[in-house]
C-alpha cells in the first residue's frame, strides 16, 4: 500500500490495530527513508520506533510516501545490531556483547567496560524487584558507546548536535536509547580518574535501564526529579551493588546528602518540595539543590514508602505518549498517591533525612 502526501494522514489514521504492531516504510521530501513501528501520530507529527531502538520523528508535511511492510515489527537481534555498530563506528572500535549489553569501545578494552555494564543491569533489576516495582523485559539490546578521549567525545556531541554541555562526562539519550561517555583515564588501567568513569557508567546505565524496563517511559514527560533521583540514587554502592552492600549507610549517596544539607533548609523544604512536584524549573535555576533534593526525595520514597512510590510510577507510566504533563496534573497525581497534606508529607520526609548519618 503506497499513498501520496495528500492522503497520508487519512490512511495512517485508518490503519487497523494490527498495523500499529507492524513496520512501515516512510520516505521524506529530504530523500531520507525510515522504517519502523508507528508509536505516535497526530495531524502534524509522527514518531516511529526503529528496529535498533532509535526513535525518529518528523512532521506529516515532510512525508512523501509510505507503505506497510509485511510481518510484525521486531527488534534487531544482537548479531544484527553488532554488525550495524561495526559499520557505524569503524575499525578503531570493537563491539563486545555480554547478555543485555552491546558496548562499542576502543580496540582491546573489552575487559574494562562490558562486564561492568552488564553487572549494573543485573543489580538494578534485583534492586527494583525486591522492592515491588513492576518491570518488563527490555525490547532492545542496550547500547553503550565509549570514546577513547574527551576530544573525540566532544566532536561527536557537536556532530550530532547534542544539547548537552561539552564538559559532561557522559549522557543517556532517550531518542537513540544509547549511553555515550569517554574514558577519563585515557585507556590507562591504573589511574586516579577511574572513579569518574565508574560513577558516569553507573548514573547513565541507571537511566538507560529505568527507561527500558518500565520504570520510566522514553516518550513520556516524566518529572525530572524522578529521573535524576533514581540516577543519583544508584550511584551509592549499596544501591547498584545491593547484594553485597546491604546496610542503610551503604545506600546513602554521600555527595548528595552533603549537598542536600548545604542547600535545603528546614524553613524552605516545603516550598522546594512543591516546586519539584509542579515543574522541572529548579534543575535550570538551582541545579545543585535540585539534584540533591531529587536524590533525597527519591531515596526517602524508596526506603520508607516503596509501595506508594511504585504506584506513583505506574500512574505516570499510564499517561499518553508525547503529551506534556501539566502542573495541575502533576500535583493531583502526587496527592492522589501520597495524600493531600503536603506539609505533613514534608514533615515525615524531613524527619527521615535528619536520621541519616
Summarize this entry quickly.
With 357 residues, the protein is an alpha+beta fold. The chain has 14 helices and eleven strands. The strands form two sheets. A six-stranded antiparallel β-sheet has the order 1-6-2-3-4-5. A five-stranded mixed β-sheet has the order 7-8-9-11-10, with helices on both faces.
Helicity level:
40-55%
**Basic shape:** globular
Radius of gyration: 22 Å
CATH topology of the largest domain: Glutaredoxin
Number of strands: 11
CATH homologous superfamily annotation of the largest domain: Collagenase ColT, N-terminal domain
- Poorly predicted segments: 1-11, 13-18
User: Which class of secondary structure composition applies to the elements?
Assistant: alpha+beta
Query: Biggest sheet, in brief?
Result: 6 strands, antiparallel
Sketch the topology as an H/E string, one letter per element.
EHEEEEEHEEHEHEEHHHHHHHHHH
Order of strands in the sheet with most strands:
1-6-2-3-4-5
The level 1 CATH classification of the largest domain is: Alpha Beta
Q: Write down the overall mean pLDDT.
A: 88
The proportion of strand residues reads 15-25%
End-to-end distance, in Å? 65 Å
Number of helices: 14
CATH architectural designation of the largest domain: 3-Layer(aba) Sandwich
List the domain count as a whole number.
3
Amino acid at each position: 500500500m503506497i499513498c501520496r502526501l495528500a492522503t497520508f494522514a487519512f490512511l495512517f489514521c485508518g490503519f487497523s490495530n494490527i498495523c500499529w504492531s507492524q513496520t512501515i516504510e516512510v520516505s521524506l521530501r529530504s530523500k531520507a527513508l525510515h522504517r519502523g513501528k508507528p508509536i505516535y501520530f497526530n495531524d502534524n507529527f509522527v514518531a516511529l520506533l526503529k528496529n535498533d531502538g532509535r526513535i525518529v520523528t518528523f512532521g506529516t508535511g515532510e512525508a512523501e510516501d509510505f507503505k506497510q511492510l509485511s510481518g510484525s515489527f521486531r527488534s534487531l537481534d544482537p548479531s544484527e545490531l553488532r554488525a550495524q555498530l561495526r559499520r557505524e563506528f569503524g575499525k578503531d572500535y570493537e563491539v563486545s556483547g555480554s547478555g543485555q549489553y552491546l558496548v562499542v569501545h576502543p580496540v582491546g578494552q573489552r575487559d574494562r567496560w562490558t562486564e561492568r555494564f552488564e553487572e549494573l543491569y543485573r543489580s538494578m533489576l534485583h534492586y527494583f524487584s525486591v522492592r515491588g516495582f513492576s518491570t518488563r523485559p527490555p525490547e532492545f539490546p542496550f547500547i553503550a558507546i565509549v570514546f577513547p578521549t574527551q576530544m573525540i567525545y566532544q566532536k561527536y556531541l557537536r556532530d550530532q548536535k547534542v544539547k548537552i554541555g561539552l564538559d559532561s562526562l557522559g549522557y543517556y539519550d532517550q531518542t537513540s536509547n544509547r549511553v555515550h561517555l569517554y574514558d577519563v583515564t585515557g585507556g590507562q588501567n591504573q589511574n586516579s580518574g577511574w572513579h569518574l568513569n565508574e560513577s558516569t557508567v553507573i548514573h547513565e546505565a541507571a537511566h538507560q535501564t529505568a527507561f527500558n524496563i518500565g520504570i520510566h517511559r522514553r516518550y513520556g514527560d516524566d518529572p525530572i526529579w524522578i529521573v535524576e533521583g533514581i540516577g543519583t540514587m544508584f550511584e551509592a554502592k549499596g544501591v547498584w551493588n545491593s547484594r553485597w552492600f546491604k546496610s542503610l549507610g551503604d545506600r546513602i549517596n554521600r555527595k548528595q546528602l552533603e549537598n542536600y544539607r548545604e542547600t535545603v533548609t528546614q524553613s524552605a523544604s516545603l516550598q522546594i518540595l512543591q516546586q519539584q512536584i509542579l515543574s522541572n524549573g529548579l534543575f535550570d535555576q538551582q541545579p545543585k539543590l535540585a539534584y540533591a533534593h531529587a536524590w533525597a526525595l527519591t531515596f526517602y520514597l524508596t526506603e520508607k514508602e516503596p509501595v506508594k512510590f511504585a504506584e506513583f510510577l505506574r500512574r505516570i507510566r499510564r499517561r499518553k505518549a508525547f503529551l506534556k504533563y501539566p502542573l495541575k496534573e502533576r500535583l493531583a497525581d502526587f496527592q492522589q498517591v501520597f495524600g493531600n497534606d503536603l506539609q505533613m508529607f514534608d514533615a515525615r520526609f524531613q524527619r527521615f533525612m535528619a536520621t541519616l548519618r
